[in-house]
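Input.
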Amino acid sequence: MTDAPLFHARGLAKVYRMGEVEVPALRGVDLDLYPGEFVVILGPSGSGKSTLLNILGGLDAPSAGTVTFKDHVLTEAGEAELTRYRREHVGFVFQFYNLIPSLTALENVSLVTALAAESHDREPADAADTLRLVGLGDRLDNFPAQLSGGEQQRVAIARAVAKRPDVLLCDEPTGALDVETGKLVLAALQRANRELGTLTVIITHNASVAGMADRVLRLRSGAIVGDERNANPIAPEALSW
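Output.
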């Protein structure tokens, strides 16, 4: 971990308006995230986890506060700059896989690497190598319909990391999976983090996942109520769910 944070957020607040009612989702969040960290953000539904992730990913804007990525103030960026930021620097993994059904696993990942090669000067990873990294070296030519849910999620992870993003943002990536399949997906995320050095942020309500993290942030009612470092992260297969 370097001394300079990749993300520097101060005073983040987000208020949603529902008719005449204002619903606060974030309340004055201060946060620094560093290159290469594996961070789990824990909190119950409605704690503000997804809102925080969307702001870090440039998908949403806070009602107040600032977010700086490297030396770029995201909260002052226009839509074109945010689009470029998401394309060049951020990989997203969501609960649902959103693979293109008419393309094989290799083609789904290759599409992203081709776009990444055109959009910036960072050399993307080899698509087949990235699929091997997540344990799918024998599924390169399979279509999504021929893959299990866990395999499809690992293709989605490979697709996200193949462009070599600075940060991988994961929104409940095991939420639609059974326990054993979820552990395989978490193992793929941990392996990608360790081998590629990508800052990885997972939001989840499952406290068991905290055991594999370098750092655990606890969010409640839109505020960070805990920030703990784990000196000895465990392998996902050893997690007790």
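The chain has a mean pLDDT of 92.
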